[in-house]
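PROTEIN DESIGN WORKSHEET
SECTION A - STRUCTURE
LENGTH: 237
TOKENS:
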């Protein structure tokens, strides 16, 4: 049986491994972390620009908030996030899964896309960095208060994470949570010159995010099967 060695057990690697097994290859995944999943892994930590908020309010029946998607809200008073004026905020309410918060309480996530260069520069001065995170926290609380009056005094836990947080935990390029912006750089070659039988599968080589990473793993196996003149199988049935 032909062997396939996969370096990295992120979604792309795991996807490549699944399709390799389905197509009769002997796949070996080498992951350097003690958990598979890559950027999907969760970490226990003390503390992106993402602000996670735990509130002592039951927001599960809120018509707009009670859904698993990010809702976009226009702000009466714009806020400054990492040197950029934001007139809207995206809020995601995790009430769709009761395990995210104790009964009667709620977990919200507010996320902003910002330039990582801004954070990289501020990071050189730890006090400045801490202060800027505090500024983000204050700005987000004031904007949440515009949307959910009374929430300010009900916040029990709040955590601000920046692109630097992502670099610290994942070393992902520029603290990006996904790959390149869709449409910006597509069709990156999956191979490297002079390196035989080597293929790249990950969020950076096709469409970004989980679907992009998973489908890139699948595409590689499709390529290998084509090269081996085998019918590509996509199910165990
Ligand atoms: C906070 C956050 C939120 C996100 N939200 C979403 C979302 O809502 N929707 C969405 O579609 N996507 C989301 N993403 C993006 C998505 O998680 C990633 O695009 C996807 O997981 C990337 O998978 P990957 O396999 O390409 O890379 P990675 O997950 O980075 O996997 C690479 C793996 O290779 C391992 N590795 C690296 N070098 C070596 C080596 N030399 N030897 C052995 N192992 C090695 C790493 O440890 C890692 O496990 C989010 C990401 C983050 C961080």
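SECTION B - SEQUENCE
RESIDUE ASSIGNMENT:
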């Amino acid at each position: 049986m032909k062997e396939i060695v996969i370096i990295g057990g992120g979604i792309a690697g795991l996807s490549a491994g699944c399709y390799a097994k389905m197509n009769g290859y002997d796949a070996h995944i080498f992951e350097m972390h003690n958990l598979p999943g890559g950027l999907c892994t969760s970490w226990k930590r003390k503390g992106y620009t993402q602000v996670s908020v735990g509130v002592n309010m039951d927001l599960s029946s809120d018509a707009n908030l009670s859904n698993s998607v990010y809702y976009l809200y226009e702000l009466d008073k714009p806020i400054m996030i990492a040197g950029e004026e934001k007139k809207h905020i995206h809020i995601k309410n995790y009430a769709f899964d009761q395990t995210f918060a104790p009964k009667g309480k709620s977990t919200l996530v507010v996320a902003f896309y910002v330039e990582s260069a801004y954070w990289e520069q501020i990071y050189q001065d730890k006090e400045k960095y801490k202060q800027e995170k505090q500024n983000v926290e204050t700005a987000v609380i004031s904007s949440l208060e515009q949307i959910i009056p009374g929430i300010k005094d009900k916040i029990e836990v709040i955590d601000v994470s920046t692109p630097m947080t992502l670099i610290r935990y994942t070393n992902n390029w520029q603290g990006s949570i996904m790959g390149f912006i869709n449409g910006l750089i597509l069709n990156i070659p999956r191979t490297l010159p002079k390196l035989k039988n080597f293929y790249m599968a990950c969020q950076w080589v096709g469409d970004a995010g989980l679907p992009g990473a998973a489908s890139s793993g699948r595409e590689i196996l499709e390529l290998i099967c084509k090269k081996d003149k085998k019918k590509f199988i996509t199910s165990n049935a």
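SECTION C - NOTES
The chain is about 30% helix and 20% strand.
The chain has a mean pLDDT of 86.
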